[in-house]
Amino acid sequence: MSDKIYPPSKEFVAGAHVDADRYEDLYAASINDPEAFWAEHGKRVDWMKPFTKVKNVDFTFGNVSIKWFEDGTLNVAANCIDRHLETRGDQTAIIWEPDEPGDAARHITYRELHENVCKMSNVLKNLGVKKGDRVVIYLPMIPEAAYAMLACARIGAIHSIVFAGFSPDALGARINGCDARLVITADSAPRGGRMTKLKDNVNQALLHDVNDVKCLVVQRSGDQIAWRSEGDYWLHEELEKVDSDCPPEEMNAEDPLFILYTSGSTGQPKGVVHTQGGYLVWAAMTHELTFDYHRGDVFWCTADVGWVTGHSYIVYGPLANGATTLMFEGVPTYPDAGRFWAVCEKHKVNQFYTAPTAIRALMGQGNDFVEKYDLSDIKVLGTVGEPINPEAWNWYNEVVGKGNCPIVDTFWQTETGGHLITPLPGAIATKPGSATKPFIGVQPVVLETESGKEITTTEASGVLALKDSWPGQMRTVWGDHDRFQATYFQQYKGYYFTGDGCRRDADGYYWITGRVDDVINVSGHRMGTAEVESALVAHSKVAEAAVVGYPHDIKGQGIYAYVTLMTGEEPSDELRKELEAWVRAEIGPIAKPDLIQWAPGLPKTRSGKIMRRILRKIAENDYGSLGDTSTLADPSVVDDLIENRRNR
Ligand code: 6R9
């Protein structure tokens, strides 16, 4: 870790929304009197009926309840579109950059966005979607993904986006999980020059559907696709039947806006629920202040809308602020490793937000790919998804930012709706690898891992929790409030527990050290080891599997799977490939194990619990500190595993 410190330049500070003094004032005000503070800042969105109650929060385990602005009403789509029409109707809302650099980019103005979203809203209504219904969106990175989200918001339907890289099985589980009656997808879509057959995946996911789930299909590629016998509709045909008049539905601040499935340490992914008012205030405020967004700037977040980062920082935050947001269909390395920088130059991007894994991958391709392009419009660089190693930070700073652009390392989670710990670029000097200081209104605490006691000295090391609520916090797990409480409020009573380890240095800067639970972070994508394990054991030749993360140069963490075969099955390279393909098919390409180690036995306690701590150490090639193995039922399996690891 580096302790070099990088203050913003005087010029940057002079033009920034928030400088150091203002940050101190805002932060103090937000903590000393949250009611008054949020009564004021809640006004950054337009309310149909203004709220009179600001905050109503109980973090007590067994009684957890989180409400913000609870008696206000609003419409999120109207906030993201309609209210900008008068002042910036002809301004570009969305720049769409397609997968093929030779294909034309599209510029969609706020007026056009309004028309497209209203028409799509009417299509949804015609298909029977009503307020409170769930709609699954399984789309590539095309403008229709944003239209679909906003159309749901406009009519009060709850969207649940499933990343287009997920397999039919994973998609099916999510459709059932929230009992959706409509899926919005595309025929097929290019990504990095390769086609994904989305509609085919939907057909497979709905093969055993008993709910008559309808499917609305965007024509992206024009490829021939298979149609089910009924319930499938082309979007372009449905659009011909509707007009563009669709008044926004009046929603309560605490009505759900969306569900987004994310991985936890146990069981299947859970449906994180975000609501209308607090989420929008949070997405908009963090977007404006963390990136120091100014009117007219072009903002580019490279995430996929299938992840929370895409929800908050491609669609809701930027559009609520009347920004121009860039949406990119492709990947960083297609057609070559200069694509990100080519797009930055082409569209004169002012704020660029990506993940450490992409930075590391591009760093490995050399500086020529960056230096070919004019990146002088970039003012702020952001990262998200995992801790950024100082080498990657320095490269980002020097080679991409030419030492001129503050780097905002934003720590947050699907559950938090938006940034929690991040520098405000005009206010806080950065240290490579540290997410620095809390955002306004956020009260992080470091707890002793075992006792759960709050560490009150400035320097601290333990687990990261939050002492009080902020407007963007998730409200519940869809259909399972007990699971919500058990996951986040049980282990450390009175706090929201993030699942991350953390160190606070002498300057009060926070350094996130990674997950302390069985969640791994592969290329910035969150995955529960339990999910990969259950996919593996679903294979007929696998008796048992244990999955851990291990350090990976590009991905941050790789997936290391210990596999015990059924008696009579022999390990082979073929079987290894078969299992890799199996996991890809069960979950999706992002879950494919990087390393499979055949394990005749797994280290278990006498009560049968797999000792992952030991498996992690072996995967890390670190045998010196295996710790106490005396409680193992059969300590000799550890020697076997080490032997095998060394032989690889
Ligand atoms: C937004 C997002 C959340 C987990 C989180 C943590 C890790 C995210 C980070 C970071 C260190 C950062 N994480 N940002 N760790 N520094 N700047 O990524 O949401 O997919 O839910 O993942 O990602 O471990 O707990 P999500």
From TrEMBL:
One of its GO terms (cellular component) is cytosol. The modification N6-acetyllysine is found at residue 609. Residues 82-467 form the AMP-dependent synthetase/ligase domain. Keywords: Acetylation, ATP-binding, Ligase, Magnesium, Metal-binding, Nucleotide-binding. Residues 23-80 form the Acetyl-coenzyme A synthetase N-terminal domain. Acetylated. Deacetylation by the SIR2-homolog deacetylase activates the enzyme. Transmembrane segments: none annotated. It catalyses: acetate + ATP + CoA = acetyl-CoA + AMP + diphosphate. Mg(2+) binds at residues 537, 539, 542. The keyword ATP-binding applies. Its EC number is 6.2.1.1. It holds the Pfam family AMP-binding. Its cofactor is Mg(2+). ATP binds at residues 385-387, 409-414, 500, 515, 526. GO terms for molecular function: acetate-CoA ligase activity; AMP binding; ATP binding; metal ion binding. It comes from the Bacteria. CoA binds at residues 191-194, 309, 523, 584. GO terms for biological process: acetyl-CoA biosynthetic process from acetate. Residues 531-609 form the AMP-binding enzyme C-terminal domain. The keyword ATP-binding applies. InterPro entries: Ac_CoA_lig (IPR011904), ACAS_N (IPR032387), AMP-bd_C (IPR025110), AMP-bd_C_sf (IPR045851), AMP-binding_CS (IPR020845), AMP-dep_synth/lig_dom (IPR000873), ANL_N_sf (IPR042099). Catalyzes the conversion of acetate into acetyl-CoA (AcCoA), an essential intermediate at the junction of anabolic and catabolic pathways. AcsA undergoes a two-step reaction. In the first half reaction, AcsA combines acetate with ATP to form acetyl-adenylate (AcAMP) intermediate. In the second half reaction, it can then transfer the acetyl group from AcAMP to the sulfhydryl group of CoA, forming the product AcCoA. Belongs to the ATP-dependent AMP-binding enzyme family. PANTHER family: ACETYL-COENZYME A SYNTHETASE (PTHR24095), ACETYL-COENZYME A SYNTHETASE 1 (PTHR24095:SF14). This is Acetyl-coenzyme A synthetase. The lineage of its organism: Bacteria, Pseudomonadati, Pseudomonadota, Alphaproteobacteria, Rhodobacterales.
